[in-house]
Amino acid sequence: MGALVVPAELDTDAHAVLARLRATEPVSWVPALDGWLVTGYDEAVAVMRDSRTFTVDDPRFSTARVVGRSMLSVDGDEHTLHRAPFVAPFRPAQVQRRFGDDVERLTDGLVAAFRDDGEAELRRALAGPLAVAVVAEVLGLEASDAGTVLGWYSTIVDAVSGMRGDEPVPEPAREAMTALASRVRDGLRADEPGNDTLLRVAAASLTEEQVVANAAVMMFGGIETTEGMILNAVRDLLGNPGQVAQVAGDPSYATALVEESLRMEPAAAVVDRYATQDVRLGDADIGGGELVRVSLAGANRDPTVFPDPDAFDPTRTNLRSQLAFARGPHVCVAMDLARLEARVAVRAVVEGLPGVRLAAPAAARGLVFRKPAELRVRWEVVPVPDAQ
After folding, report:
1. Measured between alpha carbons, how far is 134 from 65 in angstroms, rounded to an integer?
2. Does position 220 have pLDDT exceeding 90, yes or no?
3. CA–CA separation, 264 and 311 (whole Å)
4. Counting Cβ atoms within 10 Å, is residue 93 exposed (0-12), middle (13-18) or buried (19+)?
């Protein structure tokens, strides 16, 4: 029969539903999802680490149909080929060297634009624009192309989210991919001294088609999940007493705050796999070809790993055990860039907006991607003394 779960519950009151499933059957058949839902921590890690048994390489995976085969949608040697050029450039030290100053500059500029207003909606004023601008830089595009990147992204996401079965790729998505491909190829062929963009480095071992597909994947992940990560972190900063004072007193505390926010509300709440054969997972018998949805949101609140899991506590000693960036071969390659953006945004909100506070409730929603629809805040505008 399966677990009686209404998808709307996972969109709104997700954590109560996930806790119930995790306590009774951490691997549950959910008819409403037409697949298995994994909510236990150990079971989630087992699925994500075993790409031979639980694969992303399945024709039902709509992302691959829209953008092409990329590190997101293949496994085995082909996955290693796609991913390898991006591993070294996205290591923490390289992320700081390549992007640290730019992320600081972009964030400071965005905050400065609304600092004197006394109130703002941070999804549209900070989190979204920052994520888009950083992706434009990662792809080697000019900052002025941020709006264009956002247009491509929105069109591609709409197609990936809306496709069903064997439906053809919508024409707007084809056009967006064609435009992205053209811009990427122009950048690859540009003969400019010192032009060592990530995509040009990748082109040394990948075909142009493969570079374009992976550029689209970075655009998708770099905007959607990073925007959500920033919003969730700022909401947790402002929604938990004492956190603003902690960051103000010790800016390095923002690192722990962001990590605990990732545990509490991963921006990408679910990752999908497909069983390649009949397999037993926990107490469940999964059939070959069946969909297995790993709830990162559920696993991140498993009390056997995180005691008192619903409490926001950045002092936990095992924060890096959270699964917001997945595990195994498909662990997010740019996770430290996303961490950098969220950390800088949190500090900028505390340091640049005196007395900042939530102006309205901001609950995260969504089955696959969880974040507030908007994040409204207020602060005290401090007059600048007239120059004498």
Report:
1. 26
2. no
3. 8
4. exposed
Task: Give pTM, 2 decimals.
Answer: 0.94
- CA-to-CA distance for 274 and 222, rounded, in angstroms? 24
Report the SS3 class of residue 115.
Answer: helix
The pLDDT tens digits for 72-94 are 999 999 999 999 999 999 999 99
Cα separation, 212 vs 233, whole angstroms? 31
Q: Is the dihedral of CA 335, 376, 105, 315 positive or negative?
A: negative
Q: Please give the order of strands across the beta sheet that includes 357-358.
A: 119-121, 376-378, 357-358
Pairwise CA distance, residues 307 & 301, whole Å = 8
User: Could you say which DSSP state residue 382 is in?
Assistant: P
- φ and ψ of 87, to 5 deg: -65, -55
Beta bridge partners of 372: 364
- What is the spatial distance between Cα 35 and Cα 73, in angstroms, rounded to a whole number? 19
Tens digit of pLDDT for each residue in 308-318? Answer: 999 999 999 99
DSSP 163-197: --TTPPPPHHHHHHHHHHHHHHHHHHH---TT---
Residue type at 317 in one-letter notation: T
CA dist., res. 305 & res. 198, Å (int): 36
The DSSP H or E segment spanning 260 is helix 253-264
What's the rounded Cα separation, in Å, for the pair 208 and 33?
Answer: 36
pLDDT in tens, 99-110: 999 999 999 999
Contact yes or no for 115/377 (Cβ under 8 A): no
Residue type, 75: D
